[in-house]
Design goal:
Largest sheet: 5 strands, mixed
Number of helices: 9
Radius of gyration: 16 Å
Order of helices and strands: EEEHHHEHEHHHHH
Number of domains: 1
CATH architecture: 2-Layer Sandwich
CATH superfamily: Ribonuclease H-like superfamily/Ribonuclease H
Shape: globular
Distance between the termini: 28 Å
Strand content: 15-25%
CATH topology: Nucleotidyltransferase, domain 5
Structural class: alpha/beta
Helix content: 25-40%
Length: about 200
């Protein structure tokens, strides 16, 4: 892939979002969505609640609404790892809002050795803080970016809804930008640096 000449608007990308039991070192993913988007259309996707093997903290439930009974009996992340890794290997860049957090959480149950290496990634949170037209905004949550661009913001903080909203924000944020100038890190570097 020629990262110097391809615009973000000309390539499909994989949008990833996770919901978690909390933010500590023993917390785990309790919901994940990964979906490929191209020109606003969703194609390949995986979305599921997963049994994190630990309790969902009350603070996290306040954010995403997921409780222990929602994930009881759901597959463990390692049980659906093949489907997630297959999406990660579709030879498209990855996009996430707060990429380091999502990939670090994912690496707790799917060893990074299984991931493809050298995948171009875009952290929309980091990018929005450094580049116009969103650089001067007070907050850089996905919903803040969506409102800035005049996009409709519906229900949030479930992985599928957050992925769909982020996919609508990306074209406004980086549409005419060459991929190489918008990328932030590579997959294995995120995990090694932030892990």
């Amino acid at each position: 892939m020629d990262l110097y000449n391809v615009l973000w608007s000309e390539t499909p990308y994989l949008v990833i979002d996770t919901e978690t039991t909390g933010f500590g070192q023993y917390d785990r993913i309790c919901e994940i969505t990964a979906a490929v988007y191209f020109k606003g259309q969703r194609s390949l996707s995986f979305s599921s609640l997963v049994d994190p093997g630990v309790a969902v903290s009350p603070g996290s439930t306040e954010v995403h609404g997921i409780v222990d009974s929602d994930v009881a009996g759901m597959p463990r992340l390692r049980d659906v790892a093949d489907e997630i890794v297959d999406l990660m290997k579709t030879d498209v860049p990855w996009v996430a809002h707060n990429m380091s957090f999502d990939l670090r959480m994912l690496a707790r149950d799917i060893p990074v050795e299984r991931w493809p290496r050298g995948v171009p990634t875009l952290c929309t949170m980091s990018y929005s803080r450094k580049h116009p037209p969103t650089r001067g905004m007070a907050r850089h949550r996905v919903q803040d970016l969506a409102r800035h661009f005049g996009l409709s913001v519906g229900a949030l903080h479930r992985s599928d809804a957050d992925v769909a909203l982020l996919a609508t924000v990306v074209p406004f944020l980086v549409e005419d930008t060459p991929m190489c100038s918008a990328m932030t890190k590579y997959s294995e570097e995120w995990v090694k640096e932030k892990g």
